[in-house]
Amino acid sequence: MKLTKMFIGLFLSIGFMSCSEDDTLIEDEQISKSYELISIQWKLNETDGQSIIEKKIPEFHFRNETDTVMEVVIEPLKDLRGSSIFKFNDSLTFTELSYEEVQVSVTKELSLLSEEYGYLGGGVKVPLTQEESSFPFSWNFTDSFALNKGTKLTSNYTVFLRKNRASFLATFKETTTEETLELDGTWTGIFFNNLEENSIIEEID
Q1: Which of 81, 128, 87, 121 is nearest to 105 (CA)?
Q2: What's the pLDDT at 8?
Q3: Residue 131 pLDDT more than 50?
Q4: Which residue among 25, 85, 94, 164 is least packed, with the fewest CB closer than 10 Å?
């Protein structure tokens, strides 16, 4: 009876070791796979679209308490940048994917997209990543003022940002077997739209 139990225990142990080794082989095989992006397509779903975000820039103050004219230059957009973020529906698969990060084209003109998948070329390029990335605005603005002695300048700016949301389908290819993997999701990008200014020059009290 003891021998029977011993054989059963040994058999079960070998069975568990075999399963464990098989699982390890499968995991190692998945990890060893390396993918590359071969295409990304875009479309607009019902939940996609564009909205405008209003952002007030901190007020600028300058005082000229000297006896000469003071030249003032303001760059209200200096510290602002556009942003991009991809959210994959199967976030875990993309996170575990062994793939070299690449730059892809995104658009601030959603009118270029339709309800059917299509390709984009040119425009702003951003990394295909689920981490938020940033890029410089394609438009810059500089305000110049000449303050006479005994005057002060107060400038207020409001920037309007274009928030775009679109759907994408990314196709990856395994570099060894050439098998393909499709992952879809949504992308959100922030772009410059326009700027409003209100500047007042007054005498210092």
Answers
A1: 121
A2: 41
A3: yes
A4: 25
